[in-house]
Amino acid sequence: MARWGMVINLKRCNGCYSCVLACKQEHFLPSGITFNRVLVGEKGKFPSVSRETLPVMCNHCEEAVCVEVCPSGATTRRDDGIITIDYDKCMGCRYCIVACPFQQRSYLDKVREYFPGQETHFEQLAKEALQTGVAVKCTFCKDRIDKGLAKGLTPGLDREATPACVINCLTKARHFGDLDDPASEVARLIKEKKATPLHPEYGTEPSVYYIR
Amino acid sequence: MTATTREDVWVKTTCGGCYGNCPTRVHRVNGMAVKIEGEPDCPWTQGSICGKGASPLQILYDPNRLNYPVKRTNPEKGIGIDPKWQRITWEEALDTIAGRLREIYKDCPEAYLHQYTPTTGVLGCYMGIFARAFGGQQNSGGGGLFCGNATHLHAGIVHGAWSYTADFERANYVIYMGASKGTAAGHSSGHMMKLTAEARERGCKMVVFDPICNHAGGKATEWVPILPGTDGAVCLAMVNIILNELGMYDVEYIKKESNGPFLIGPDRHYVRDKETNKPLVFDAKEGRAKTFDDPGVGDYALTGHYEVNGIQCTPAFQLLKEHVKKYTPEMAAEISTVPAGTIRRIAQEFAEAASIGSTVTIQGRTLPLRPVAVVTFRGMCGHANAWNSIAAAYLLNAVVGANDVPGGAIGWPTRFYGMPDTGWPNYHPKIDDDGNLLGGWWWVWEDAMWPKPDPKLPPDKSTMRETFPWVTTSPFLTASDREWWREKTGLKNRTKIAIMWGANQLMSAPNKEEVAQSLRDYPFVASFRLFLDEFSELCDIVLPDTHFLEALFPSAHQEVGFNGPTGMTDWYVGIQQPVVPPQFERRQAMEVYMELARRVGPECLTSMYDKLNKFLRLRDPYKLELDPDKNYTWQECCDRGFKCWAGEEHGLAWFEEHGGITWPKKVDEAYLRPFVPNLRQPIYYEYVVNWGDKLRALIEPVGIDLEWEQFTPLPEYFANPYDKEADPSFDLYSVSYRDIAHTGSTSLAVPWIIEVSATNPFTFNIQLNEDTARKKGFKDGDEVWVENIFGRRLRGRVKAMQGVHPQVVGTMAAGGHWSKSMPAALGKGVCINDLIQIEKKYLDPVCFTLESSPKLKLYKVKEGE
């Protein structure tokens, strides 16, 4: 069984928000909900300053705190490493949101309008695709992966089977594949470029790595 | 999708979110467009698209769009004054507009002014076809005044293209002087993002001179803070170091590819051969002068003083070398605040990285390899010294031999062998008798970038390009001293009808009250718009335009010199087509312009067909017949275009299904210079002396005085005109920038874009250096007034940061919407353009680029204000 993971090359990333918006369309996310985010800040003192842009998302941790704390069994870790939420089981207690050390979960109380007071098909799509009263977060585009695999495609190599943020990244900063397969691009990049996850000290063993 | 899915298709099209025109595909399910992706078959975006390009569905489906033609019922026109719109039929709208046009068509077609948004790139150029057919005039309605005027001029002359960039596939050391290639909207935007990312990973050093460390500076190997508008001084100092301290310049290139050996007389002009009138060089081997293109020149003298035909003369290179000596790094440091040591080091790194003498073999051809480039654009250009500053930057690429060779500073392609099956349309560069480049690709129209026509008086058109031929975007329509210019030049025709396609000019052009007044002065203003936005407030009739996802264009990609792929990246020519049919009564402007031509009369309609033939490069048997009884549709024009370019079997239907065609580039399509014999790039700008002489002789007698010193063949640094007069409380320079998530003002209407922008702590705020903010007693979130020397002011909130020059106020351009038709945009950012003044003393006298860094003062908003 594969263990899906992502490598984000921060040298390549230019902070264009393509990942954020590809994701919002892929998952019909309503106003105020983002599975991908790009954090912007700066480092250093004038005149030696650099701008920091950091794309963040659910890290699909091997030792996931959210799985541990979920009282209803809605949040689970699949055999392929994807942390998933069963919306039918989630009772919206938000323990996972508080527990996630990376602050990657949101509570979807209702589908908010993009144009306040004016419902559009964006909200209709969101209502069809999502449930309210539940915790939500990045799914690693598990539907694309599952459907792709069923067709004999390889996630990370075949467009159809690869997460939307990866295929849409204009700077080709995002890579996806099987962390356990030493021949995969992600495994090779982690080894060759010494990619590291965010906050390894938390001990959660994230599946998202960064090349700095 | 679910069991209820009746339709599930991908429609291939082209993005119109910025000039880049990246190929995209749109997922349509049950008649609704639900997702935009990059087109996988496109060689430069390879199936991806930037955040801006992913977001336009929220304009397509914005419930606040304009859906029907409307006319004003309130005769009072002004900012914030309700026009009291009344819905009208298309019939009434077209009748009214065509009636107005007919009134001026016979006697004075120049009184028709067409303006357009440059934001959608090549698509906007199609919109000018009607104006040409009618005999009117046209001007960019957007921010062109401080955008590219000078850059386009230099790029046209040196590269034969609209702009230039670094050859990122091979570059190792790139200096940005106010450029944002790879981190903003613009020419080949998506392509540049991908190429710069690869270059960074490969280890290409990026040194970014910029007053703010945001998108370009943030991705740099080194950010060098600099005072706005002073980059020219730094460039001249670096040229000085390379020529006079390091001696690391490309002698072969200067001798054989530049006008460095051309002999210059005491009158600053070329010394010419008596018989052929060609410029002379001195053959050091034979000890006599020869024409520059004489194949028998043994050795081009670059130094020394000579007497030829009784004239004392000196090679241009020698003059340049002497000229730049006064630009010491210490002097440039004083002007720019960049330490002299930094200037010295970067000049040396640049010259070393140029690896002068190295070669590379591509497609079997051995070519010079110069993996360095200085890239400039709006940041360096938007100043009253624009022509000189850009000229100085171009010198750096020239002295190391890096123009239009692999790895170097390359223009967008100016040679194009045409599409694979037909070899059509094709463009090839040529040279004139002085060795100047005549770009292969250029507008098919007569007003090419180079050569420029001689100036003449009086001008027929209020854009006044006849008098000032080096103007790209004309300042004379909205300048606060426009009446003065009109009186002095004896302008013949005043604008009577203006039609604007897109362009929210009240926000994207400087000084909104002057823009509003200029619009009030026109007896009739109509516009194609997506929203009843700020510009609409000044219109008589507003027409509901289609969004680019509802529009058909036969390709944005064959205009390769504008935004075709650079370097060795393969060609792609693809369609832009509606992904959903236009809703309500929206109509595509191209169809409406054709209908207007029909209503103006048979002569105008056949003229429209003629211009369409020209613009679409139609040749037999695809040419439109010049017969007013032929009722050609825009669809048919597009079909003919495709067939003519791509072959009979590749008509509109083929492109609708397949999207586009890609094929490999030839090396001489990518790199111009080694393949054009006797091409001489200017390192001594003799042409500008000619321009100055001719213009001065023409306009001084009518009482127009310009800063003639700026017409100099050897570039100089000229200080910001605001330095001369501002009182000391105006202590900060304005710098506005294009945010990576935004294009012009329209991107602010997109809730998705607003949502991501709100996560950036700087985007919507007034950005100040932390020291500056502390000295002024401001803290983050404080509301402040930002005021210019004319007393115009705006308010915004302070965000202090480290990555901004202490003497600068930073803002994202084109914020500050006030129209209720774009609710997402309300209260986001500030309209900094309003604090810029268009009048003579703030204009570059050579190409009339506007100073966009006025001095400003900031003070806290009082309680209750």
Description:
The complex is a heterodimer of chains A (212) and B (865). Chain A is of the alpha+beta class. Chain A is globular, with a radius of gyration of 17 Å. Chain B is α/β, with parallel strands linked by helices and 865 residues long. Chain B starts with 7 loop residues before the first strand and ends in a 5-residue tail after the last strand. In chain B, 62% of the residues are buried. The mean pLDDT of chain B is 95. The chains are: A alpha+beta (212), B alpha/beta (865). Chains A and B meet through helix 1, strand 2, strand 3 and helix 4 of A and strand 3, helix 1, helix 6, helix 7 and helix 26 of B.
Architecture blueprint of SSEs:
The complex is a heterodimer of chains A (about 210) and B (about 850).
Chain A: E1 4-9, H1 18-26, E2 37-45, E3 48-56, H2 65-69, E4 75-77, E5 83-85, H3 95-99, E6 106-108, H4 121-129, E7 134-136, H5 142-150, H6 164-167, E8 174-178, H7 185-192, E9 196-197, E10 208-211
Parallel strand pairs in A: 1-10
Antiparallel strand pairs in A: 1-8, 2-3, 4-5, 6-7, 9-10
Chain B: E1 8-14, E2 23-29, E3 32-38, H1 51-54, H2 57-60, E4 70-72, E5 85-87, H3 90-105, E6 112-116, H4 122-134, E7 137-140, H5 149-159, E8 164-166, E9 173-177, H6 189-202, E10 205-209, H7 215-218, E11 222-224, H8 231-246, H9 251-256, E12 263-264, E13 280-283, E14 288-291, E15 306-308, E16 311-315, H10 316-323, H11 329-336, H12 340-353, E17 359-362, E18 365-368, E19 372-376, H13 378-381, H14 386-399, E20 409-411, E21 430-431, E22 437-438, H15 482-489, E23 497-501, H16 505-508, H17 512-521, E24 524-529, E25 541-544, H18 560-563, E26 571-574, H19 589-600, H20 602-615, H21 634-646, H22 652-658, E27 660-663, H23 667-670, H24 686-699, H25 722-725, E28 732-737, H26 751-757, E29 766-769, H27 770-775, E30 783-788, E31 793-801, E32 808-812, E33 855-860
